[in-house]
């Protein structure tokens, strides 16, 4: 095993990008990630790529990426794991570089969710992300799926809609400084509580948007890093965890066991504990999800997530700042891109280059929870000491 | 990097499995692969899995696999690369084991193509496997896509429909002995030539069927192999190659450059030349595709593929027996399972356990070419000397 560094990170602005197809988005993000490498990089330096895309927007994902950015002479693998697709792509690329098969690889995540060539997007989202033979027909698409968990969390631990609203307030505030964010407006607790109900306990402002977006990283083996940068950020740990697909099988709803498993693996690989995390980008597809994440990731005890946000422990100046980029809630959630974009933000944070900078962060964590809360991927990055 | 062995291989019978859902198929293949391990294996030995599935038949692939076979405490990654999905899953699992991250992992490929919970199959196949913004609207789904290449091969090199028919004759003959094959009937050159035309030069009997099926492998690091078997088969090389997605960009149609790139990488990793291959399972989605494969894989010179089959060099007793299992043409083509099943056959061949045994084979090769002829993955296996 070799150490693997992130040496470049690039994004495009997330949003409803009706003026861009997925190919233009891929080209733009590829230019941005290449430009981000301190000492420059040539396309010929890139030896392989992993592509996280969920919707096959323009057809065959690996081929569309290769064609769009002109990288036809390297292997490209598409990985998919529902909303954890982005961090899963990072994980598989990491294995191949650490294992010694490649020195410099590209990780791209991209998604076109607001429009697509086939109009396939609308029906694909709910069907691909859960069990369509059992769960979907009984009415458990995305929001209802997560609502079951959060409603039970409220019941068990007295978590309130006001506490959830604080997540939206925090993440929208953070997103104001993030140029890549889909939304640039703040919200108040009152506005969140008064927003039209989507599925209890989630009002419209408790839900992240569906977003077009792309993000990319360049990973490099330890022995080649010096050529590209003096300020690499290291991949300290990766994890992937699963849970039952069907909600009928889940026996403790106020948690996402997939997150617990993924995080445990990543912490162990990094040789650290949750309290060592200095900044985190965590999967706030719904406000209540972020509260459960605090607990599953070990940032606070079980049942204390509501108090954690109430005490401001996840704000920029708090104990473990969460979603300084604005998170999915404000920056947006282009599925395949989301986890990759989280790693971009953590990379910038650990280099001191972030828009909402957390001072002196050493370890940062990126986290996805997705599908029928059945899959989580976690990536832990570490600054060069 | 550590050496990685295949220590188990299992399949289910391929076919139109209207009596089984994808979950039953996954359960059956998992039992079969576990039973195949010489000294036995316990589910707790398996540390991670890679799943090649193309259609998301019952929804979220990794979750459906975990749920179906009860492996909820290990990471599962879904990879997809059009018709190369199976060998791509093997390749990514290989990286993680060789890199030292896991000792024992499961690779599963499965596909339900004859029916699905959503009926999504029919329209998904042509859209996901090519560029739907450009190629698909001008009428280039699967058969027409490959026909463009084969028609040009006929024009350039005088390849004939009779030579292509010989591929069907050989593979159907081989498939007679293969209990997992979808078809158990032989065909004659005359029957192939007289079959209804699908798209010139492919008649119905030049085309592989669409198939339900599943296949699985267990991979193991070199230091743990002895516990499971005295007859491991080693992964000697893996490769992934791409080509332009759009046919308008392809400048030499009588070849699949993706195959040439994937094979070059795999041969180099294995430290061998094409002539070292003793048995091969190659992607005969159409008879003419197999002829081009002979050339792209280096089994014969460019333009000599027709003569290669005419001289019987790819028959069981020939110089490089190709598709002893019956190939896609006769055994069937359940997309995600196909490459994994090819590796099962090569594993059995190299252990001397195959139904159509090639004597004394040392090296075997598995090959997929897919999408708009834009992606190829190749796996080379080697017998323990």
Tags for this model:
385 residues, 13 helices, alpha/beta, homodimer, 9-stranded mixed beta sheet, two-stranded antiparallel sheet
Please characterize this protein's 3D structure.
The structure is a homodimer of 385-residue chains. With 385 residues, the first copy, chain A, is an alpha/beta fold. Chain A has helices at 22-35, 61-69, 85-98, 121-128, 142-157, 161-175, 189-194, 225-228, 257-270, 287-296, 305-310, 327-331, 335-351; strands at 4-11, 48-52, 76-80, 104-111, 197-199, 202-203, 213-221, 233-242, 279-281, 363-370, 375-383. In chain A, the strands form two sheets. A nine-stranded mixed β-sheet of chain A has the order 3-2-4-7-1-8-11-10-9, with helices on both faces. In chain A, helix 3 packs across helix 13 (335-351) and helix 6 packs across helix 10 (287-296). Chain A is globular. The model of chain A has no long low-confidence stretch (mean pLDDT 95). The interface between A and B is large, with 62 and 62 residues.
- As a percent range, the share of strand residues of chain A is 15-25%
- Largest β sheet strand count, sense and barrel closure of chain A: 9 strands, mixed
- SSE class of chain A: alpha/beta
User: On the 0-100 scale, what is the average pLDDT of chain A?
Assistant: 95
Residue runs with pLDDT of under 50 for 5 or more positions of chain A: none
Distance, first to last CA of chain A: 20 Å
Radius of gyration of chain A from the CA trace?
Answer: 19 Å
Shape of chain A: globular
Helix content of chain A: 25-40%
Greatest interface (CB-CB under 8 A), with counts per chain: A-B, 62 and 62 residues
Strand order of the largest sheet of chain A: 3-2-4-7-1-8-11-10-9
Count every helix of chain A, treating DSSP H or I runs of 4 or more residues as helices. 13
Number of strands of chain A: 11
Order of helices and strands of chain A: EHEHEHEHHHHEEEHEHEHHHHEE
How would you classify the quaternary structure?
homodimer
């Amino acid at each position: 095993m070799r150490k693997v560094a992130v040496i470049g990170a690039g994004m495009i602005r997330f949003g409803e990008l009706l003026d861009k197809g997925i190919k233009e988005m891929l080209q733009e993000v590829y230019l941005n990630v290449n430009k981000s490498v301190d000492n420059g990089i040539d396309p010929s330096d890139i030896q392989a790529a992993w592509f996280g895309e969920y919707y096959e927007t323009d057809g065959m994902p690996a081929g569309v990426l290769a064609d769009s950015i002109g990288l036809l002479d390297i292997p490209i693998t598409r990985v998919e794991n529902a909303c954890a697709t982005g961090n899963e792509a990072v994980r598989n690329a990491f294995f191949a570089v650490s294992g010694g098969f490649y020195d410099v690889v590209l990780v791209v995540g991209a998604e076109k969710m607001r429009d697509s060539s086939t109009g396939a997007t609308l029906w694909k989202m709910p069907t691909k992300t859960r069990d369509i033979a059992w769960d979907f027909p009984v009415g458990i698409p995305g929001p209802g799926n997560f609502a079951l968990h959060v409603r039970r969390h409220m019941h068990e631990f007295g978590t309130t809609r006001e506490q959830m609203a604080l997540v939206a307030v925090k993440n929208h505030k953070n997103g104001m400084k993030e140029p890549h964010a889909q939304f640039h407006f703040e919200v108040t607790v009152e506005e969140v509580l008064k927003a039209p109900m989507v599925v209890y306990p989630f009002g419209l402002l408790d839900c992240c948007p569906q977003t077009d977006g792309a993000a990319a990283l360049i990973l490099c083996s330890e022995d080649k890093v010096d050529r590209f940068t003096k300020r690499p950020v290291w991949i300290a740990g990766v994890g992937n965890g699963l849970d039952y697909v069907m909600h009928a099988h889940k026996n403790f709803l106020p948690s996402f066991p997939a997150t617990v498993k993924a995080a445990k693996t990543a912490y162990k690989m990094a040789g650290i504990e949750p309290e060592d995390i200095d900044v985190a980008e965590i999967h706030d597809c719904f406000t209540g999800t972020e509260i459960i994440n605090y607990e599953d990731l070990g940032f606070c005890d079980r049942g204390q997530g509501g108090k954690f946000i109430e005490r401001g422990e996840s704000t920029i100046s708090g104990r473990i700042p969460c979603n300084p980029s604005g998170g999915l809630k404000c920056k947006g959630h282009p599925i395949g891109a989301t986890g990759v974009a989280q790693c971009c933000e953590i990379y910038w944070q650990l280099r001191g280059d972030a828009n909402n900078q957390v001072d002196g962060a050493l370890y940062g964590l990126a986290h996805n929870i997705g599908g029928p809360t059945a899959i989580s991927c976690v990536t832990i990055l570490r600054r060069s000491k």
